[in-house]
Design goal:
CATH class: Alpha Beta
Structural class: alpha/beta
GO molecular function: ferrous iron binding; oxidoreductase activity, acting on single donors with incorporation of molecular oxygen, incorporation of two atoms of oxygen
Organism: Sphingobium lactosutens DS20
Radius of gyration: 18 Å
InterPro entries: Xdiol_dOase_suB
Oligomer: single chain
Protein name: Extradiol ring-cleavage dioxygenase class III enzyme subunit B domain-containing protein
Pfam families: LigB (PF02900)
Strand content: 15-25%
């Protein structure tokens, strides 16, 4: 029987892939704390000894179906079509877990959730997966789950429930990684920094988003996922969170949805990235949460 042994909300923004010298230059002499946060996250992951990381990727936009990457192995040299001058030359080489991906499709069919496992070697990679894998120096097998853009919050929660059930039917120990930001409204192209340190929250797109993010972080630390989910229709989806919050909602759906009470441990400072709110938060997964999610 498989098990979810941990989960995290994790930032993947492109600035983290630049050189330390560059990050310190734009950081007014100090590095992004998200870099040190990756070391803290890796320590948590290593402690629970997973063999698979399931990454909910906010950049893999799909339409009409949730997709799960069922490839056995991926290797290549990534360049972003979004910002090729800034994010390029990222080599990646990681194994997949096709048996788990295909099991997700089986469970989805039983649950009448539109989801497919896709095994296509030429399927494009996205940096919300590659950056996380490379920054973690991950050796675990990787399964990427898409962010279906014509989904409601409930649809994301249902897909997460499917993923959770597939994991329980598998033989895998899994850590779930929700790869994306909280508030995700970019600053205008002509935006002038308010704070010399580019990562500082004063450089977020709005004070309202900053305030909303801090409130959300406090709720996550308290394990109030019920409150977070309740706020999605009228607040977080309208801000919006990155990928309409699909990364977080699928992760928490796998952990029992509103019934999940896992408290978050912040592993980094809350930082700006081109107006968006970024942070790493770890969630311990207790055995009772596994039982609750299965009910």
């Amino acid at each position: 029987m498989g098990e979810i042994v941990g989960a995290a909300l994790v930032s993947h923004h492109p600035g983290l892939m630049q050189t330390e010298d560059f990050r310190k230059k734009v950081g007014a002499g100090s590095d992004s704390d998200l870099i040190a946060g990756y070391e803290r996250l890796k320590a948590h992951i290593d402690a629970v000894k997973p063999d698979v990381l399931v990454i909910f990727d906010t950049h893999w936009f799909t339409t009409g179906f949730h997709l799960v990457d069922a490839g056995a192995h991926y290797a290549g040299d990534y360049i972003s079509d979004e910002m090729p001058w800034y994010l390029h030359g990222q080599k990646y080489d990681y194994r997949g877990a096709p048996e788990l991906a295909k099991l997700v499709q089986v469970v989805a069919e039983e649950s009448k959730v539109p989801a497919l496992a896709i095994d296509a070697p030429d399927l494009p990679r996205h940096y919300a997966t590659i950056n996380v894998v490379n920054l973690l120096k991950a050796k675990e097998r990787i399964v990427t789950v898409s962010n279906c853009q014509n989904c409601s919050s409930d649809d994301f929660l249902e897909m997460g429930k499917v993923v959770g059930e597939a994991i329980r039917r598998s033989n895998s120990r899994v850590v779930l990684l929700a790869s994306g930001a909280l508030s995700h409204k970019f600053t205008d192209i002509s935006f002038e920094q308010k704070h010399e340190r580019i990562f500082h929250p004063d450089n977020l797109s709005s004070e309202a988003n900053h305030k909303s993010d801090l409130e959300a972080i406090a709720l996550l630390e308290q394990g109030r996922h019920d409150e977070i989910i309740a706020r999605f229709p009228n607040e977080y989806r309208k801000i919006p969170w990155e990928g309409l919050g699909g990364h977080y909602l699928q992760m928490i759906g796998a952990l029992g949805g509103a019934a999940c009470q896992s408290k978050g441990e912040t592993l980094s400072e809350y930082e700006n990235a081109r107006g968006t709110g970024n942070i790493h938060i770890w969630f311990d997964v207790e055995p009772q949460h596994q039982a609750e999610a299965a009910e």
